[in-house]
């Protein structure tokens, strides 16, 4: 029997009972549990096989909750919350004592956001605790953007995937930390850096090694298909040099000649970066099912969401 269901009251019951429920968000599906339940939080790490040094994002139902969770809200953090929440921006701020150490991997800061999905906002309204909800995939594999992706990963491990349809944004939230009250980007994501700069001015992107401790979104290899995958800025040349293989293509718009190609996914016929982001992980799931020798992914334009997609593709193609 399928574990996918639209029954919010069943999800509420499970969560109140310290069990896990996969929940829809606008970015990817999350594997959610009560942040105050040690049982639920341990189950999140165990189910995902996620190393315990990787902190979890706390999901709250409204920005009013923020002051209950963090000790200090810099002016620019408040501005970002006011403009972008509910939405795919995660703020990392100094935690209050009530936030358990297993959520933050022992760090003194906590990552928090308000997800923009009607079903999950309704769910959060009806429970009296925030939800820890990392992506609902085994550690380092392709993130889930449809209920079926979660079911195929975890049907033996969890009782329910709350069905909210396909995720609209399709890649993880943009994570922003603060240094001397000034925002810095820890992870590129669904909110383009250009939009953030309109609100808080020029912002620095920290490279992976500068953000400590190493966290999943920061690891070199992540979001990876099982099939060998390469990233290229010269499609024709890469196809030629693998002409003896069963090739799958992940491309932005389209190419004129695909003679040697076994399977191809076009992210956006109209070169729309929003559409490309929303289709990215499902495309990788599909390609990974085709028994190919190699997946050749095309680099996208390096601005707006293209920058975030390129970040994910470069990690997915690290060996
Ligand atoms: P996920 O929920 O799987 O998208 O991953 C959560 C991400 O949030 C991690 O990869 C970290 O990069 C980031 N994160 C969570 N808490 C913190 C924190 N206290 N400091 C820095 N980064 C954090
Ligand atoms: Mg993840």
Would you kindly provide a written description of the structure presented here, covering whatever features stand out?
By secondary structure, this protein is of the alpha/beta class. The chain is 30% helix and 19% strand. The chain has helices at 8-16, 38-48, 66-69, 75-84, 101-104, 118-125, 147-154, 193-200, 235-241, 273-288, 305-316, and strands at residues 4-5, 21-23, 30-34, 57-59, 89-94, 109-113, 131-132, 161-162, 174-179, 182-187, 204-205, 229-232, 247-251, 261-266, 294-298. The chain is globular. 46% of the residues are buried. Bound molecules: adenosine monophosphate and magnesium ion. Magnesium ion (MG) is lined by residues 134-135, 143, 216. The site of magnesium ion has 4 residues, from loops.
Largest sheet: spatial strand order: 2-3-7-4-6-5-9-10-11
Domain unit count: 2
CATH architecture of the largest domain: Alpha-Beta Complex
Give the CATH level 1 class of the largest domain.
Alpha Beta
**Cα distance spanning the termini:** 36 Å
Which ranges are low-confidence, i.e. pLDDT below 50, for 5 or more consecutive residues?
Answer: none
Mean pLDDT: 94
Q: Biggest sheet, in brief?
A: 9 strands, mixed
- Gyration radius, in Å: 19 Å
**Share of helical residues:** 25-40%
Strand content: 15-25%
Structural class: alpha/beta
What's the CATH H-level superfamily name of the largest domain? Answer: DHBP synthase
Oligomer: single chain
User: In sequence order, what are the helices and strands, one letter per element?
Assistant: EHEEHEHHEHEHEHEEEHEEHEEHEH
State the CATH topology of the largest domain. DHBP synthase
What form results from the Cα inertia axes? globular
- Ligands (ions, cofactors included): adenosine monophosphate, magnesium ion
